[in-house]
Amino acid sequence: MNPSRLQHLLQNAASRRVLVVGDVMLDEFVWGRVSRISPEAPVPVVEVQSESAYPGGAANVARNLRPFCAGVLLCGAVGEDSFAAKLRGLLSDESIETGALVATSLIPTIVKTRIVARHQQVVRVDREKGRGPIAEVTDRAVELITELMPSVDGVIIEDYGKGFLCQALKDRVCSLAREHGKILTADPNPGNRLDWSGVDLLKPNRSEAFAMAGRVDPGAGEDPLQDAALLDVGDLLLQKWSLKGLLVTLGEHGMVLFEKGSPPFHTPTKAREVFDVSGAGDTAIALYTLATCAGATSHEAAEISNHASGVVVAKLGTATLVADELVASFEQDGK
After folding, report:
1. pLDDT tens per residue across span 68-111
2. Is the distance from CB of 158 to CB of 22 less than 8 angstroms?
3. What does pTM read for this prediction?
4. 143 pLDDT more than 90
5. Among 223, 282, 324, 333, which one carries the catalytic annotation?
6. Is the confidence at residue 275, as pLDDT, over 90?
7. Number of domains observed in the structure of the chain
8. How far is it, in rounded angstroms, from Cα 176 to Cα 5?
9. Which end of the chain has a smaller Cβ tally under 10 Å, C or N?
């Protein structure tokens, strides 16, 4: 993609508004160093040096969007607790609209605390309560999404399999998006067996794609376009849900875009260093969707998504990027 085309798309994106619907959570990080093993058990003792917190899950998708567009709206469920207050504050600090967050006393806010020493994760502590969909939460979410839909350009469904997304909610979002002519993409979770018919694009990673297709992954080859098992899974999922597009992220092998009636399109990875892959999928779906809302072709959107993911994996923790970093990645690729 030439620089002028990229700048044109970024300028268009700057006026767009995107709604993210999905499982929200709080990501906490405890940064420290290990200098000895505990005398109480054969585990490292981490001396805490600093702590940080970021919006996670679907909220991290929202964070990835915010530097590039005019408005980001977030719909999900949180508890009535101090973690929810902390999450709302962090989102407000980044000018992400939180009016569609549904608070309920029936569940706690999901919190994932990672303890990191010398750039290595020592342990992760999860605070969450397994549950199925809660009818009153779903009903309230539908009301809020119905109100917001006319004011946005695109919608992202982000499923982390935590119980917020159910078939009824997904179907209602699809119906509203079609009614208002909005772009709709989704990042699925194979553990939550939803029918994804009606979305414009589905973005699983390789393992998720094989799981949703009910196939065993024989392992990746060097050239995704010669990977018969992957190509078969892509065609199967396109047909299964009558999808317009399927974007499969492949880690060090980049991404492959499958579209009905077109040959698969492969964009190789743009990552030059890899420190932390957590959140890279959030970046991928965020930038693909926003690029599409800005008028990019599907191939251009895949390239933008791939470059953006390559930038964030070179950062430690739940990372995002800004426009200058995206532009720089394209410039380096063109040298």
Report:
1. 999 999 999 999 999 999 999 999 999 999 999 999 999 999 99
2. yes
3. 0.93
4. yes
5. 282
6. no
7. 1
8. 31
9. C
Q: Is 324 a catalytic residue?
A: no
Q: Is residue 48 part of a domain?
A: no
Q: Measure the CA–CA gap between 60 and 26, rounded to whole angstroms.
A: 9
Rg, C-alpha atoms of the chain? 20
Site of tokens 């020493």: 117
Indicate the SS3 state at residue 128. Answer: coil
Region 298-311: mean pLDDT is 95
Is residue 68 exposed (0-12), middle (13-18) or buried (19+ Cβ within 10 Å)?
buried
CATH code for position 165: 3.40.1190.20
Q: What is the pLDDT of residue 130?
A: 74
| Phi and psi, residue 42, nearest 5° | -75, 65
- Cα–Cα dist 204/181, whole Å: 24
The residue range of the domain holding 166 is 3-26+56-110+128-334
Enumerate residues 6+ apart whose C-beta is below 8 A from 318: 27, 29, 54, 56, 60, 63, 278, 279
| Strand segments (E) across 128-280 | 154-158, 183-187, 201-202, 245-249, 255-259, 262-267
Backbone angles phi, psi at 266, to 5 degrees: -110, 130
For 199-249, how does the pLDDT look when each residue is reduced to its tens digit (9 = 90+)? 999 999 999 999 999 999 999 988 999 999 999 999 999 999 999 999 999
Q: Where are the beta strands (DSSP E) in 105-249?
A: 111-117, 120-127, 154-158, 183-187, 201-202, 245-249
244 within domain boundaries: yes
The answer to whether position 138 is within a domain reads yes
CB-side exposure of 72: number of CA atoms within 13 Å?
Answer: 28
pLDDT for res 274: 59
